[in-house]
Amino acid sequence: MSDNELRKAISILQQRADDAHKRGVEDDASRIERTIADYRDEMSQRL
Question: Rounded to two decimals, what is the model's pTM?
Answer without folding.
Answer: 0.90
